[in-house]
Write a sequence for this structure.
């Protein structure tokens, strides 16, 4: 079964939210205290997703706020270089900095991150900087959950969602839950529910849906039963190496498998999943095939050093799908 | 035409939001600099509305946060004394204070207020302090806009609205716009729109609807055309002494007139209006009659010294309606 | 023994720090919950001291920041009316409010206060608003400890002290410790020590000196031994109804007794003490006599309703001293 | 002329203040946007100074606060590895991060930095974490100005200075002015004056002394005339490549010259200067010779990639002094 988009829109995906810098340990398989060199990449979930989609050939744009310094300019230059429209990227004039993520890769099973997220520019995107004229040009508005964690970025996203719905733009909500961004689980649940109820497609891990419902050990049946009372038509729930499920309001359910790969680190899996899954949907693949694209893309990224630079091409994805080596158990691939 | 409520609910109205202290100039018709004595009353829009409704005989409750001091205890004692259920009134344990409003009455035409709203307890109501078991017992959840101005009170209200809709409790949204509570007009518009779209009944002045729409000089036709695409079934737009309009989704429109009275001050008009209007609706009066109850109640309160203590009885309201002395022009009665 | 001042200075005392509003329970001998009316007075320790000194006939000035509203204007008008120079009173332009103190008088032994001190104007006095040309005109710069509790008022006071010392202006440090103003006892001790070491005269209760030393149950001998290593020449330590001690660097010690009076409340005792003590010193009385003026003035104020309005005249003070009814035990008169 | 220290103290220098991370562009002579790799070093003025002093053979300790993460542990491990006592290094338990400095080296003349200083651990050192027993063991307490920029670090330093003076520990104040750390020039001037007046030795650039005096284009004669009225006995004022001046309260003045070197970048010059200057003083060299050590050390560091790792040995310093190639004009070596 296919999922339909308005084909008259100029952009395939416009994402809103954070774009920041990853500083990946150059010397890995050791604790970060012993890493002396770091390589710089663009990072941040919605940025990674449009970078991935753009590399796959989609027409994309980005609404966000970047710092008025070398890091902010690097982000903008990189986005442009992969074909993303940056006309709605706002430069912060109040001294806020670009968020940073240092990665530590002790082993494929032991990865951790060290975040700098105090007063970062991306969370200062204001609702007055979100424009109806731009949003209405896109098939999809991609929202990632972290942008809801603080004002004024929160209001910017709520306004963007409101404008998308008014203009027949599909709202894709990638839950992208980062605990350190939020003040309380109650607050997270309030905003995750609010946006999920208004979204057309919701994508997240099982753990992230639990956060949205403010419960522990939730189950997929209850989740979809609740959300299908509201706007969502398609819900994707990911269970790491156990694969992922796509539920449609019309009743169909599909299961996708993870692909076997040599894991270097676990970062970036969720973002590469989303970029290829959305690519496939937009290109008219059926939902079952789109699940394969998502899984294959995730498997490729976890075998490489970065999250953004490593985003695969169509050929890489399709080759991996063709090999058809799915897995039933392996080191768990969580979002990190 | 009548507006229907679920008659099996235990409470008529549960309000959520701020309860604070008014300090009204005892010596008036002079600038506040020359006022040496102040009389203490309970204040705050949603508190005033349930105090008014309770005096009229409705069964009411209040969800809010009060300071752990003499002012907080005064509010609780007063609410209990007029019959409001205070089981969901939370005592703040972090040292936040009760909001204060000093009133200055230079003349009936020149009233102003001096607010103390820094770090006030009511804005610290947390979403974890809002309980489904309580909200679902009421015919109406009354939300006033100021409670949306700051976190965590904002999230508490968003959660309450979500729970009300889940449990067939009518959401009445009294816009109650106070500019000093908000950081920007964009932010206000985002949350006012979000809650208005989910509410069943929306009540406000024409100016307040303009704030919701983030425009100047809006008109009622556009306002109702937009909101009737969403949940609202009844919208009341007040135009001061020019009277008020009630619009129903089913198409009917009613106009209410203001009643002639000797104006002492302009405070409290909106709250007394809402309490009597809702009383009438709940008691099964038709909308046109409810408008008269609202106008009469407002006229009575502006002739007296306080906003809460002065809330009228049914007899007073019905006598004023019976006299039928409406006005076409007079000193403007704004919300203050 | 007398204490000498530079007689060529135009002002006797310039005080720096907070001026705010007291709202005193009009109906007393009851909990504040049952008080319905409050009377407004100017309050705040340094303001009370210059009001008291001014009424006694000294030439005084005040450096402080007041709110741009009716309360701020009331303070300025009142100060002018009692003869205080307000040329260096700055009007806050950032919306900060006047601090408030509601008083509760349950009985002479049970008095408490309810403070509004969030974001108050007096703590926003900036160092750029403190002018050398003004400070150097005074015999005394009176500093009260609370102004040190927050930036930028803290820096304004540190600058004022620096300028006073540079210009042969005696620095009188009234410890005036208010726990709710401070973040930690360590922080208080740091700034109290810093200013006390630079002051010429230090006045406080035994409890307040303990706060300065960050210890419990300190003793006067250790306190003066430490401080006399630095600038102070005269130290006054008050022990409530047990009287007060004045220690001089030159070695003399004097003891003052409290006077018998009918106590209404305990507020304002410390401020009236300081105003009359400083008055006597400036008028050339010896230290022993100055102690009597301080005690008598305190006894008079605790028998009356306000702290500022109630500041006594010379005649009242001298009559009480003449009656010579001192006390050895009675309801404790703490600073409140 | 020599400067005397208490020779019975166990430590030569205990520094207080910030220790953070420098991320130096590995590919230089280009804008940072084009730098893809960064090398990690310990940084921060007082940390650099004790690292330098420790490498020269002095017995040093450090009082500071580090983050509870990989960056904080790296700092502690590095300090230990060069022989610094870290027993008074406190681990932050409130989630504050290590400060970061990204360096950009476009050319020897064009260097800039990109700082992350929001909510950094070093500024959360509390006065309760400063211990008299430790400070009193040292000949020198080294204070750098940036630690005064925010509470509670500010109070920790003020307390440390108070304890040093009480225990005959020389207070060396390195002005180390970083504009982005401060809220206003008035505030800076207040605290710089306060500490400089209490210090025994004050070291800074001419620009930094202007900041202390809150003036533009100050001159050395006025600066020393003012400060010698207070505690300071030795004042070093640096004029970049024009050399530096040492003024003694006893009247002597000495001038030091900068040494010719191949400049890679300008970072770290001031810190290496201070470490070698203090080393020489402590080792009993006369002031004139100490100026040469400072200059030579600075010249060596600016020719290398890092500020801390690059700190020279005695042999390197003495060889450069022996070559005696001083300069009169060259690219300006500012503190950066």
């Amino acid at each position: 079964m296919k999922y339909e988009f308005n084909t008259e829109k100029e952009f395939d995906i416009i994402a809103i939210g954070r774009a920041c810098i990853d500083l990946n340990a150059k010397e890995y398989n050791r604790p970060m205290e012993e890493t002396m060199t770091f390589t710089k990449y663009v990072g941040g979930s919605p940025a990674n997703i449009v970078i991935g989609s753009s590399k796959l050939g989609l027409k994309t744009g980005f609404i966000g706020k970047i710092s008025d310094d070398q890091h902010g300019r690097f982000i903008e230059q990189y986005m442009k270089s992969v074909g993303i429209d940056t006309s709605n990227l706002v430069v912060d004039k109040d001294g806020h900095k670009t968020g940073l993520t240092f990665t530590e890769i002790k082993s494929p099973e032991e990865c951790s991150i060290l975040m700098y997220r105090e007063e970062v520019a991306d969370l200062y995107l204001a609702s007055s900087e979100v424009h109806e004229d731009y949003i209405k040009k896109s098939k999809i508005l991609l929202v990632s959950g972290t942008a809801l964690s603080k004002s004024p970025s929160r209001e910017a996203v709520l306004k963007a969602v409101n404008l998308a719905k008014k203009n027949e733009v599909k709202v894709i909500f990638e839950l992208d839950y980062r605990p350190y961004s939020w003040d309380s689980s109650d607050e997270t649940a309030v905003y995750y529910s609010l946006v999920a109820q208004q979204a057309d497609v919701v994508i997240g891990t099982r753990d992230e849906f639990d956060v949205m419902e403010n419960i522990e050990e939730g189950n997929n049946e209850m989740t979809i039963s609740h959300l299908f009372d509201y706007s969502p038509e398609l819900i994707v729930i990911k269970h790491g190496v156990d694969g992922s499920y796509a539920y449609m309001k019309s009743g169909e359910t599909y299961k996708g498998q993870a692909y076997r790969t040599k894991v270097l680190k676990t970062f970036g899996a969720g973002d590469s999943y989303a970029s290829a899954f959305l690519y496939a949907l937009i290109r008219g693949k059926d939902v079952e095939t789109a699940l394969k694209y998502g899984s294959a893309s995730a498997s490729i990224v976890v075998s490489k050093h970065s999250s953004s630079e490593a985003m695969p091409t169509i050929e890489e994805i399709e080759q991996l799908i063709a090999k058809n080596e799915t897995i039933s158990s392996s080191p768990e691939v969580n979002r990190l």
About this structure: Chain B has ten helices and 13 strands. Residues 329-336 of chain B have pLDDT under 50 and may be disordered. Residues 269 and 298 of chain B are 4 Å apart (CA to CA).
